[in-house]
Amino acid sequence: MNDYLIRIMTTSGTVRGLACVTTNLVRELCQRHDTWPTASVALGRALTGGALLGATLKDDQRLALKFEGNGPLRKIMVEVDANGAVRGAIGRPDVDLPPVNGREDIPGALGRAGFLTVTKDLGLKQPYQGVVQLATSEIGEDLALYLTESEQIPSAVGLGVATGPEGVLAAGGFLLQVLPPQDAAITDQLMARIEQLPALSELLQNGATPEDLLERLLVGIPYEQLEIRPLHFQCSCSRAKVERVLISLGPKELGEIALNPSGTAVACEFCTEKYHYSQQDLQSLLVEVSGTT
Fold first, then answer.
1. Cis link prior to 251 (omega < 30° from 0)?
2. What is the pLDDT of residues 7-18, one digit of tens each?
């Protein structure tokens, strides 16, 4: 199954719903970063949460999430755009903690003290940035808290990643948002359905689709499907961008790197792609930067 997302609106216009499957892009990024099981679940949840929030963007807008905690993972970063492109990175991929009450210990891995930073590039002069303290470090709950507190939209976020000896087996999630004027009865129904929902990772591993997830959550509540959006891993790095980073180091630091006869390799933090530069390449960049200073 290809990764995709659906967006719906209740006929009353009071609830917006999104659900997605992200198995392929999560699997690829976990393979690229060589993540251990707990790190795979944490990165997969963050990537899925980013994909859901990214579907609320318009045109060429972009969004970035950064989870920073005092646990061994240190940080998780996700970047998405309005066209369904997703990329991500993790501070330490080699983290695997014992389960707590049968669940992956994501709070222990990320850390219970830290911050979630949401940055939106809306095409204005300056990007919008919101920062909240991590409340539970469960990723989905912290995203819901951010949306509810910072954007004033009562929200529920569910994220699931199933893993096995062979890696990521399934990934996906949902986002429900209650819009004004709020209907207390519908809100109560949704909260009850979320509490009764089986583990998302199990549903997804058993083949549940985004349509299935929303049907379970909104049974008895009429709604209309508005969009189906493909999701995919895509990194925006390039050799030209890496060269600009090297040039930005300035002549002194770049000159020191250019002394190495073996050259150097620069790896993208998000996709781990390596860009190799010979000593001659570095010396040519050094001439360029020296000519502009």
1. no
2. 999 999 999 999
